[in-house]
Amino acid sequence: MNAIGEILPLSHIILDLDISSKKRLFEEVGKLLADENLSANDVFECLFAREKLGSTGLGHGVAIPHGRHAHVQQMTAAFVRTAEPIDFDAPDNQPVSLVCVLLVPEAATGAHLELLSHLASKFSDKTTREQLLSCGEAAQVAQILA
Questions:
Q1: NCBIfam families in the record, alphabetically (predicted)?
Q2: Which residue of 10, 77, 87, 116 is most buried, as measured by CB atoms within 10 A?
């Protein structure tokens, strides 16, 4: 399994992003994760298609939007803390402000599920969530999640 620290560069950590919806979040993450093989629209469509299957909101203000795509060469991640919580259709009906996005190669099913499980476990810890809400720098986020 790829550790989150190996796939989450500091450049993919955004703190206090001023957005108002899940759609805008996916658009911004699309711009962030786009590369020579994957357009911003590809990222948006991948995340949006997965979200149509059911919310990736976990509860407690956390969501882990994720998707598999044929043009993703290596697993990659982004972390966004929103300036204001946004609706994510989470099971506890609470808005979300901590978002960890995963994009994985189409064939990486096992590694994908393992990483999702690891992140869900990490985010279930109240202290971890509180630390992520109070971080002032991307390096602090990376250290907490690693």
A1: nitro_reg_IIA
A2: 77
- Domain extent, residue 30, equals 10-145
How many separate domains does the chain show?
A: 1
**pTM of model > 0.85:** yes
Cβ-contact 53, 119 below 8 angstroms: no
CA neighbours within 13 Å on the CB side: how many for 86? Answer: 21
Mark whether 69 is an active-site residue: no
CA-derived radius of gyration, the chain = 14
**From first to last of its 146 residues, what are the pLDDT tens digits of the chain?**
457 888 999 999 999 999 999 999 999 999 999 988 889 999 999 999 999 999 999 999 999 999 989 888 889 999 999 999 999 999 999 999 999 999 989 887 777 788 888 899 999 999 999 999 999 999 999 999 98
